[in-house]
């Protein structure tokens, strides 16, 4: 069974940090581009970041540049976004996804696999 499972979401104060993880089962995530989308209540889904395979080049949407870092784990089947200096506007449901293309302009294209999502809330 092909699956992506996210973890690491939660409640954090503004300015705090979180590290999400996305682990694949049933397929080799290191052969895919992988990334994250988020959707806040009442807003459209937004591409946040992605990392290419095999080059490892990354995309970040403007609002998270300098605060978020995406990287692959040593087992090559997990992808992490490290999120620092979180803001209330980062509050959303974060989804992991995998595809064959991470565009440097607009993120992950035509995802083939999706996770169920993990909630991130930055609030005091």
What does this structure look like?
This protein is mainly beta and 124 residues long. The chain is 0% helix and 51% strand. The protein has strands spanning 3-7, 10-12, 18-19, 21-25, 33-39, 46-51, 58-60, 68-72, 78-83, 92-99, 101-103, 107-109, 113-114, 118-122. Strands 2, 5, 6, 7, 10, 13 and 14 form a seven-stranded mixed β-sheet that branches. The mean pLDDT is 95.
SS class: mainly beta
Order of SSEs: EEEEEEEEEEEEEE
Low-pLDDT ranges: none
Shape: globular
Query: β content, as a range?
Result: over 45%
Radius of gyration, whole Å: 13 Å
Tally the beta strands: 14
The biggest sheet amounts to: 7 strands, mixed
Helix content: under 10%
What separation lies between the terminal Cα atoms?
39 Å
Please tally the helical runs, counting DSSP H or I stretches of 4 or more residues.
0
Residue-averaged pLDDT, rounded? Answer: 95
Question: What's the layout of helices and strands?
Answer:
Blueprint (H helix, E strand, L loop, with lengths): L2 E5 L2 E3 L5 E2 L1 E5 L7 E7 L6 E6 L6 E3 L7 E5 L5 E6 L8 E8 L1 E3 L3 E3 L3 E2 L3 E5 L2
Provide a concise account of the structure shown.
By secondary structure, this protein is mostly beta strands. The protein has no helices and 14 strands.
